[in-house]
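Most newcomers find our protein records easier to grasp once they have seen one. A record pairs a protein's sequence with a compact description of its fold. An example says more than a description, so a record of this kind follows:
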Amino acid sequence: MAAVLSADQIDALVTAAEDLGQGRHGVEELLSQMTKAVLERAMETELSDHLGYEAGDPAGHGTGNSRNGKTTKSVQTLQGPVQITVPRDRNGSFEPVIVPKRARRLGKVEDMILSLYARGMTTRDIGSHLQEIYGSKVSAATISRVTDVVADEVAQWQSRPLESVYPIVYIDAIWLKIRDGGVVANKACHVAVGVDLEGRKQVLGLWLGATEGAKFWANVLTEIRNRGVRDILILCCDGLTGLPAAVNSIYPETVVQTCVVHLLRSAMKYASYSDRKTM
C-alpha cells in the first residue's frame, strides 16, 4: 500500500507544528487545524454532490437550489474542541454525513465514554479523563445520557425471548470485582450458555449475586423458563449442593450432568501434587 504522505510532506508538517508551538502543544494545534480543514472540505464536497454542481459553476443556475452561506459550530473530537463552518443550501435539504446535523461529538467520543464506563469509572471520572487527555469537556449529564443508552440495550438483551428448546445448557458462576455504589466488591456473576438445535452457543444471560447458591440458580432458571424455554435436555453444572434438585424443580425431565472439568478438579484434591500430572 502506498504511503499517504511523502517524506517531504511529513517534513513540512513537522515544520508547521514547530511554528504553532513547542513540543506536544504544536502537534495538537496542527492536528486540530488539520481536522477542521478536512471536515470543512469534506462537507463542501458533500454539498456539491447534493446540488449536482461545484461552487461557482454556471450549471447551477435555474436548478431551484443553491448554496446559502455557512453556519459555525463547535464539535468535540479526540483532538479536542474544533470550530467548523458548515455549508447550507437554500432549500434546507442538505444533510451532511461526516458531521450530521445537531451532532456535537465526533471521532468516536461516545465509544471512548463507553469504554471508560465499562472499566468501572464514574461519570465524573470520565469527564475529568477526557478533559485531561483530549481537552474535550463533556458534561456529566451528557455522559449519563450515553451510558443510559447502553443500560437500556443491556436490559433489552437480558429480557429478550429465547428458543423453546435447548439440547444442552451450561451454567456456572464466575467471581468478579464489581463496582457498586463507589465500592469494589467480589460478586458472583452467574452465566448460562445454551446450545441450540443447530449447535450454536448462545449466552442466555448474566446475573449478579452476592453468593452462588442453589436458590439463586432456581430463580435464574425460572426467569429462563418465563422467557420461553420450555425444555432443556441436558444441563451441565458443577457439584454445588442442592443444585440438581433446584434444576429439576423447574425442569423435571432435564438430565443434570456434572461437568467433567469440575469433576477432575475436585478429584485432584485427594491426590498428592506429584501424582496429579500422571493422573
